[in-house]
Fold this protein.
Amino acid sequence: MVKIIIDGKEVNAEVGDNILDAAAKNNVYIPSLCYVKGEKCLGTCRTCSVKVNGNIMAACTIPVSEGMNIEVNEPDVTDMRKALVELLFSEGNHNCPSCEKSGRCELQATGYEVDMMVSRFPYRFTPRQVDHSSKYVWLERDRCIFCQRCVDLVRDKETDQKIFSIKGRGTNARIEIDKTLADKMPAEQVRAASDLCPVGCIIDKSQGFDVPIGQRKFEIETIKERALKGSIDE
Amino acid sequence: MNKCNKNEIFSHELPTTPLDPETQAKRDAKIQVAMIGFCGCWGCTLSFLDMDEVLISLLDKVNITRSSITDTKRIPGRMALGFIEGGIANSENIEVLEEYRENCDILISVGACAIWGGVPSMRNVIPLEECFREAYIDSETAVPNAKKTIPFHEDIPTITTKVIPLHEVVKIDYFIPGCPPDGATILKVLDDLINGREFDLPSAMNRYD
Amino acid sequence: MSDSNQNIFERYSFDRTRLMDVLWDFQRRDNYISSNNIEDIALCLKLSIDDVKETLSFYHFFLDKPSGKHHIYLSNTVIAKMNGYHEVKQALENETGCSFNGVDKTQTFGLADANCIGLSDQEPAMMVDEVVFTQLTPNKVKNIIEKLKQGKTAEEIANPKRYASNTLDYVHAIVDSNIRTASRVLFKPERDYKKILNTLITTTKPEDVIETLTESNLKGRGGAGFSTGLKWKLGREAQGKDKYIICNADEGEPGTFKDRVLLTESPKDVLLGMIAAAYAIGSKDGIIYLRAEYWYLKAFLQQQIQDFRDNGLLGEQILATTFSFDIRIQMGAGSYVCGDETALIESCEGKRGTPRVKPPYPIQQGYLGMPTSVNNVETLACAGRIIEKGSAWYKQLGTPESTGTRLLSVSGDCTQAGIYEIEWGTSLNSVLNMVGAVNTNYVQISGPAGDSLSVEKESERVFCYSDLSCNGSLMIFDHTRDILNIVSDYAAFFVEESCGICVPCRAGGVELKNKMHRIIDGKATQLDIDEIKQWSKLLKGTSRCGLGTAMPNPILATLKKFPDIYHEKIIVQKGPLLASFNMEEATSAHELAYKNLVQKGAE
């Protein structure tokens, strides 16, 4: 164990934990969109940005160390986290009312936690192509936030090859799905991939609007409550 | 807007029986509110009505002038609040929004359509020409063998290139997300503002769908 | 699978980390990489097809469809645009019958832009296949295209005397070095490398080498300014089965071309530096990551390595000691972000150039997860001199905090663009006098990622790590140049080069670029300026790598140093509509759509 300071309060943290997990264990919520507990740190969304000894860093990327001074609820960095969420909403085409993932979407739930009403950035409405060519997976690119969870963590069971890959770079980059490998995915893996996707981009074709409003994942327990309990997964 | 030189009169110019001075004074002393829907489904206005009987006590403090509920078609004077649902989809929407901005102290974008374009904005990723083609030429319900007509006339509004969120056209003061926002959510915001409190929408009441 | 394909895979031992080389071999053989070949690559390297395409589609120069027999890339830097880029572009299109970003009907030419190709001292310049042509004019272009049409290769045209590609004459035939100052530390005539290495390996301990470098206070010349001695010390202490030395010859920062000249005129100094690094940290494998835009240097560099091998200075058991070290050249394929050390390492591993999450740092876990020292070309060349002459000699030059000299690659509004070796501690004013800069208004230091200086206010500032910490790029602009357009150009550059992996840079960069357009279009208000400052803080605070962090620099710096050029563009909102709302744009599509559809038969 090491002693760290979070928002002025000295707390204990386990050696080997990153700041995100250490904070959650100490009942301090830091939002995140790309982090998957137990998996390698992706560090793509940056919504877990906090101040560490005065410098802004992504909490999921930094292992705790003795005496570390962490500011989570500092106004500037709090607004930066909110701005990143808003940037994602205006970059993609996020039509919550018509989305299968609504109610269990991490982007949406995080939007609520950071009190987003509207994006401060212009809404872009970039045309994005949907890919429904594979048998079981509908890739709704409108909603992709590029977290890279699918690219890094969803692999062909036989060969460990990537089923999802990135094409291009920068603002024109998009996720591609390998139809041959995707069609070999067993049903549980398809469902797991759909659950892993923080938004409604990877859609399990067999799962539509299957839970009534009011009983959906983040309505039963908010994403903040789940994060503080230790896991956002069911 | 009247480009044809016909013998017409606007409805608000028609002679009416004036209210008795006492009732008029009471009404004038209340907080003046105007409502409107642009390119929306009116669901947010219906959600407003979900406050049911609370509306009665609300109306002790508030006078709703122009709205689809009162069927008043003009803003009679200075308004404290403008409650707007729907996004901008044509040139008339722009004109009326300008009027609302000029005449209301505070404007509130209510619902997904006003806030970011909502369902109507799904056409934004498709060029307007293609939208017209789908709607008027290749439409499944078009009259077969009829000459296809695209609406375009000086007397009808111009369709905007894209559906535009309200705050990208004029300054908007507050936003109530939802599709529609819950009646209780709308009430919370209105109640706070009307009673001089700060806008405060707790995350438990904030919904985007 | 064809024998030819089989050979390519065998050449790289079916090693997936060599995907960049595999892709280049296919492209150089077939002119582009076909989908059949992509399938073969996927099969043989055990990758999914999209995974192969993930690497292929990231880099500017990899082509997955026929793009003409001759690939022409015209450098589109701000410097080129000051020197006739537009006329040259027009001439290219006229002569080839091809539009930019397309292929001509006869499939002979493919035209495209390229971001800075390291030739801003002699622009307009273009890459054609494996060579470059500089100091272009419409007439020159006409001449070149005519000869290409006659069936000559680009190489034949650029190198009419047919020098062998592994010679200095070949490189000189294609590109001028333009060294403008007498040598202080670098560009010394041929040295006795055997003697220097002998002294190094047989009489000096690795720890002593590190001590010397640390004593000399040499700092990274790529721009970051990290202590070389410290880096090599950490490399020595790091745990790893293998250790690697990588020479960063990506030189992608616009306006930088000093490494191009170093690799041309003093390549063996660089190799010497790499050997010293390898000896110090305990590495036996070195890589020179050479940007694709410098393809014309490749054979020549390969020859330098071979010369060293032939003399027993590289390879197994160097100078009959137990120290073995060899170097291979890894070609890039067109990506600015691959100048970032972790993105560079990703590229060396055959992947797209996504900068890595840090920690861990490359010196602990770099190439193939092993301790890796990534050093700039110039740093290695300086190190090579320091181990020969000692740290005391080096410290005589420059200042105590910024020892030695630094190369500047100067371009823009000056009489003599080219390479200048200055002692640290020299003022901007002195440099401007040296280069013949007249009527100078604005200077961009260290490229778009660096700083923008107002000559009127800042000419007394000094080149040193605590003041003008420069990576070498110095672009000079006089009072006739439009600063807003230059800044907008830089914003577009960053958006194009962003790897796209993190939200602030990928999405925020576009927002900053759009703000610049709004300002230039005269539709920006004070609120836009305030938002630029706020959003810049977001990028600087939360970006994953230096590219995102640097994106706002040109805008913020010019806002501070040249506030008037922004203020005179700012408008005040009149009436209820926002100044940024474009009524014309919002309402013009209806009539246009109507007219088009009526033309096609509607009413």
Notes: Residues 503-520 of chain C form the longest helix (18 residues). Chain C has a mean pLDDT of 97. Chain C has four domains: 3-56, 70-158, 193-395, 405-481.
